[in-house]
Write a structure and sequence with these properties.
Layout: H1 2-19, H2 30-75, E1 83-84, E2 88-90, H3 91-94, H4 97-110, E3 115-123, E4 126-130, E5 143-153, E6 159-170
Parallel strand pairs: 2-5
Antiparallel strand pairs: 1-2, 3-4, 3-6, 5-6
């Protein structure tokens, strides 16, 4: 009888478990769905953060290129000491101390923005940097450049095609 009574007890337990609607495993069926929602939210957050970072980087790049263009236009304007008739640059005046002083004056106007720049005039095999060539202390990623085609007046008779380039970088604090 003990055997029969034991099996009867097991049968009753099975019956109770089968009809129990509040099983322990039922509440955990939400966890996979919750995990999927959290993974989706995390991926969405990463995409938004990446998009914002990319936008911010591009915005900074555009601002620096605009500064470079502004400096180039100011330096190649007809009011510059070495510029004559339109886009013609007088080579003798450009390589003089007067031009270095003019470039330093323009540099001082952009100093509050923590910006430094050098100007390069190149024609044929000649390159002239004002005020000095770019040092290797600055990485390529931190430099921005704008160029403009100009005429370089060597003397009263000879004028050659050339390029005026402004290379800009931001000072590190």
């Amino acid at each position: 009888m003990e055997l029969g009574g034991n099996t009867c007890l097991k049968h009753k337990r099975r019956k109770i478990i089968r009809h129990d609607t509040n099983a322990v495993s039922e509440t955990f069926t939400v966890l996979p769905a919750l995990a999927m929602v959290l993974i989706g939210f995390t991926i969405f957050s990463i995409i938004i953060a990446t998009a914002y970072t990319t936008f911010d980087t591009k915005k900074e790049y555009v601002a620096m290129v605009e500064y470079s263009d502004q400096i180039l236009e100011k330096i190649s304007s007809p009011n510059a000491c070495f510029t004559t008739d339109g886009n013609t640059i007088n080579y003798l005046v450009f390589s003089s101390n007067q031009s270095k002083h003019y470039i330093e004056t323009v540099k001082s106007q952009f100093a509050p923005y923590q910006l430094c720049f050098s100007v390069k005039l190149s024609f044929e095999q000649v390159e002239i940097w004002l005020p000095q060539p770019i040092s290797n202390n600055y990485s390529i990623g931190n430099q921005y450049a704008s160029s403009k085609q100009v005429s370089v007046q060597i003397n009263e008779i000879k004028t050659l095609p050339g390029t005026l380039t402004v290379v800009l970088w931001q000072k590190t604090r």
